[in-house]
Amino acid sequence: MQGLMQQTPLTMVHLFERAEKYHSEKTIATATATGIERTTYGEWAARTRQLGGVLDKLGISKNGRVATFAWNTARHLELYFAPPCTGRVTHTLNIRLFPEQLTYIVNHAEDEVIFIDRSLFALIAPLLPTFTTVKHLVIMDDGKGDVPKSVDGFQMHDYEELLKGTPGVEFNITDENLASSMCYTSGTTGNPKGVLYSHRSTYLHTFGAMTVDSLGARESDTILPVVPMFHANAWGLAHAAVACGANLVMPGPDLSGKAIANLIVDEKVTVAAGVPTIWMAVLPELKDRDTSSLRAIPCGGSAVPKALSEGYRLQTGLPILQAWGMTETSPIAAVCTLSAADQKLPMDQQAELRTTVGQIAFGVDARVVEPGTTTPVPWDGETSGELQCSGNWIASTYYNDARAGESFTQDGWLRTGDVATVDSHGRIRLVDRTKDLIKSGGEWISSVEIENELMSHPKIKEAAVIGVPHIKWSERPLACVVVVEGETLTKQEVFDHIKPSLAKWQIPDDVVFIPEVPKTSVGKFSKKTLREQFADYVLPEA
Questions:
Q1: Which entry of 39, 48, 68, 185 is annotated as an active-site residue?
Q2: Which H or E element spans position 66?
Q3: Total domains in the fold of the chain
Q4: pLDDT digits (tens, 9 = 90+) for 372-381
Q5: pTM score > 0.85 for this model?
Q6: Residue 118, helix vs strand vs coil
Q7: Choosing from 112, 267, 310, 328, which is the catalytic residue?
Q8: Most CB atoms within 10 A, among 243, 265, 357, 520?
């Protein structure tokens, strides 16, 4: 016997219309070069409908890809909704990718138009002749930067001028499986891979971001997505804020520790989300300031050092809320919220639990298996294996990419590339990325574990550990350390700090001091760059 319930398409139109109908007076604040710009959801909704009309006026095809090259702003939020709500696809371009990667993804996605913040035009201008399908360039004036009046081969437009003369359109999407948006992976190995989200997956992921054991987005929140809107859908916070009617604070181009701290304090932010490198810079700027509005500090992109999480707990009363996911998982797949029983444990035990990514999120399934098999490893917190995921907001393949078979199992699960353990409560601990594990004398060494110990030293600002060649052991760990400005540190002090916490064979063979750890396009430590830099490094003899 089947149920007798209505079926309505799960589309982004519903998210949009809730903000328009029920939360028209809630606010969106955008930090710009000239100050804070404020608008309401009512004004934003009217402009978003006008933008839908603009896409019609420009002749963007029925399922055309609409690219953005922009900071986190209210205008970018208009572009998050107008294309998918008119049957098109929003394609966020990562402003920090290498030039050849940007050329690849614009042409691979077959973008028809690019909406560009004026301050970013100089960055993309040299690449314009390499784009084969783009016909229109729309400039969004964010307060700084020079833009020519014309560019050969393209029709140039001003965003505000286009909106002025365009009436709003009705949104009506009836197929929940239509593509809504696309993001490309950061392309650390080979060309970036395209992930194509649907209305249905975005709708369900928004539910996931609103559950209390996830990010718990709610109407009473003021949400600051420091994580870029071009990075994995801003972790779903832009969609969730619209759906529940939370106030939004968009950071614009200034992501310095001081600027983000000022926004948190001045705008009374309740939820602020970003990668660990952001929060390392923000923490000292919050000293002796009123952060009482905060209720959660989600952090993801790479493992959160215990020292960083505890630093926030001691200074703000809130530890870091570690979350885990990927472009392919929309991205929320796990959030480390402590259970009622966990919260009764001593603080040091709670701190240790927060170094895990917690249980897999409601709506997602996960398994940790022996490499090359579907055999689960024991839930003993010790045995490691490959982490795999499935679910309604998990990618099933890559967009038009022959490499997809490498990343998905025969039974359809996503191979995340993460090595993990699972404890008896189902808590997942990420041991390392597969490509970052160090194979030494037949044993695997976790670079993440060593980095956590290194960054617990008060004089160490950042640390990354890589494997370098070794004649006898194949590979040995090399610690690349950034010292806090104004401090001094010796190699011996580093070794003395980590020796009590690591097995002898896990201790790095050497320590090098570097000015900063190189970052990827999304703010993660770029160990690929470090491996290239130290490829010929000769380790000292024992």
A1: 185
A2: strand 65-69
A3: 3
A4: 889 999 999 9
A5: yes
A6: helix
A7: 328
A8: 357
